[in-house]
Amino acid sequence: MIEKDQMSLLKTESKRTQTPEPFDILKQKLGQDLKEMVSLAPYTTFRIGGPADYFYQARTPEKLMEAVMSAKELNINYFLLAGGSNILINDQGFRGLIIRNGCDKIEVSGEKIVAQSGAVLQDVVDSAYENSLTGFEFATGIKGSLGGAVYGNAGAFGHAVGEILSGAVLFTAAGEIKVVDRGYFDFVYRGSKLKQSGEIVLSASFQLQKGNKEEIKKKMDEIMDLRNTKHPHEEGSAGSFFKNIKSADGSKVTPAGVLLEQVGAKELKIGDAAVFYKHANIVVNLGKAQASQVLTIVRTMREKVKERFNIQLEPEVLFLDQYGLEKV
Hints:
27% strand, Uridine Diphospho-n-acetylenolpyruvylglucosamine Reductase, domain 1, 10 helices, Uridine Diphospho-n-acetylenolpyruvylglucosamine Reductase, domain 3
């Protein structure tokens, strides 16, 4: 016969096995698009990254907000990923929910472009060209999403996204929708207020000007040709790893690549991770590179510059560890 204390134990175990798992609860809220143990490498331009416990593709702003609020309600760690172009994900993956931003609608009205944050930045640039709008050419060839470009004030050739942004719709940490103008972002070189506030861009609008379509195309082609001479085509990468160095008054900019060239960074290679032979500030994945190998290389790059020039390089690329963003 089963003793009373054994019966009590069995009942306890039965109750325990009937407790819904976080994945089951999330799936009830988010539906069949929620997946388990999805490798993150294919979702980044570095092509590096272990599996996420949970992975969800949000195709509308409403679904994106629902995913964020569901994760908070269930106390599940989460991270929003879009273009995956400016990030290195660790080899063990992410312990929680990765929400991939698939909201990519783009609308043009007169001289204004309004795009959802998951739109590919190059698609926004192309839309400007197709409608003979000038002002976005500088972003030609910059990989990643529009939301990421706003978040990090992406730019090139002396211009940045913050210069032409006129307004945006944000989703706040408190679960509210907020409409803001350009001044709200406190744009700085490769940064914005969003890096501290944790607010999510749902959509952004840009004020451009009518231009000559042929001249716009010529400028875009020139920029792309220049990029092709310095940037990798086949190899995985996250673009320039370190920010350029600005003088205290902002009048002078020293490219990080110039300093890295002088300290012999191009010689660095561990496994399939290496500094790109054409650009000393770009680390590439030659095939099967690991995040740990990339981290060792970039830390060595920074140490060499510090030792030689007494300058502390600041990473432009984000590093996603198992539980969130961490310093490189």
